[in-house]
């Protein structure tokens, strides 16, 4: 009951749904504890093409693989970033889920998310973590409504007349 009332709702609602996991997407989950594994299992329900689980604990990584991770990567491996980049051809992941709650893992997640991707933070942070907006602004994180907004503009339901200043 604890797993169904805590780990799975957090993994699904705060992780999978907030990270906008979609069919055919690439997913990176940093943290292979109970909540990270729950995020992985619920993400699988949305048919992504690749789920990579990242941790430093080999036993947790083995469990993630047993439960169906497509790839596991030990973050302490000397070539961890190269392995991660090779999974997505250097483009970054569509969905990234932070399930540890540490500033260094949050920093890693910011490096992993690709243009137009989503980053969901489900780890409980005991200390401050920095959101590097200076590095994320041009990746259009969570701008999943652009296509809808374009259609609304083309149909005349939205007007660009909200511009108030012109040079």
Automatic annotation (TrEMBL):
The prosthetic group or cofactor this protein requires is: Zn(2+)
This entry's Gene Ontology molecular function terms read:
metal ion binding
Q: Supply the SUPFAM superfamilies for this chain.
A: NAD(P)-binding Rossmann-fold domains
Pfam families (alphabetical): ADH_zinc_N
InterPro entries linked: ADH-like_C, NAD(P)-bd_dom_sf
Signal peptide feature range: none
What keywords appear on the UniProt entry? Metal-binding, Zinc
**Which residues are in the Alcohol dehydrogenase-like C-terminal domain?**
34-145
Tell me the PANTHER family matching this sequence: NADP-DEPENDENT ISOPROPANOL DEHYDROGENASE, ZINC-TYPE ALCOHOL DEHYDROGENASE-LIKE
Give the family this protein belongs to, as stated in its UniProt record: Belongs to the zinc-containing alcohol dehydrogenase family.
According to UniProt, the name of this protein is Alcohol dehydrogenase
The organism's taxonomy opens as:
Eukaryota, Fungi, Dikarya, Ascomycota, Pezizomycotina
